[in-house]
# Entry
Amino acid sequence: MSDPSVSPEPILQVCAGLWAAGALKSGVDLKLFDALAAGPQDVAALSHTLGAAPQSLRIVLDALVALGFVARQAQGYTLTAVSSTFLVSSQPTYLGALVADNATSAAVFDVCKDYRRVVTEGYRPDLNSIAWIVWHMARAEDFGVQRLVGHRPQIFDQEGWMARLNVPLRHCGTAMADEEVSDLSLRIDLAALRDYWAAVGRGTLAVVRTLHPDDLDEVIDPAFLHHVIVDEGVFGPNTDFVEPLYRGHNKGFFLAHLGLTHNYEHAAEALVIRGLLGFRRR
# Structure
């Protein structure tokens, strides 16, 4: 049994210090403090000035607020006395180089990579982000199970998910261009995406509970399949190849494919991208 007088606080302090230093380095590398020297700015203005993704930038800003290097006011984010004195590069008292140019920074800050970069940007512009992958899996499972297997409305249409996700699209993303994937990845609300993914899972279980084994042999009516794919818009531009591939399949196929194996395929893709960015599992 462990000694209750022994505290893990020293370990926690080191870990907290490492992440705090990572947030500070992010601000210095982005030249965030130089930008705020011009006066208070909101996330949109700073994002334009720095060329940074708004959602990722907000995380950095809020971390720096918690650390006391940035303040949040009604007009936007602004410098504090410490940052205006020591973290603006035009000041003679500038200390940002201690963070940016420290000889050990490359090794130390390798573990401070912005995990959100994995989520919202992916590994390269020509690879999918994890945010896009989860959105795509959820949309495909939603229409596949709810509409084609359960003949129910999509979860997507029942609780205002288009607005909540901040993605003004009905389709599931098949054949999207690289720039469209990047745009979706940066604009999507990640908290809402997690909630939508969970809601889709619950919806799938609800449909499965109503099924009899014989139901899985029922072939989807071609007219209904066309209605869902085309009229309801679950597939976007450049996807004419999908309907012929889906025609003639039964409910068991769509439950297994869009409810299981399609997700396994893309979950593996996400793990590969995560690993390429250095977040490996062994």
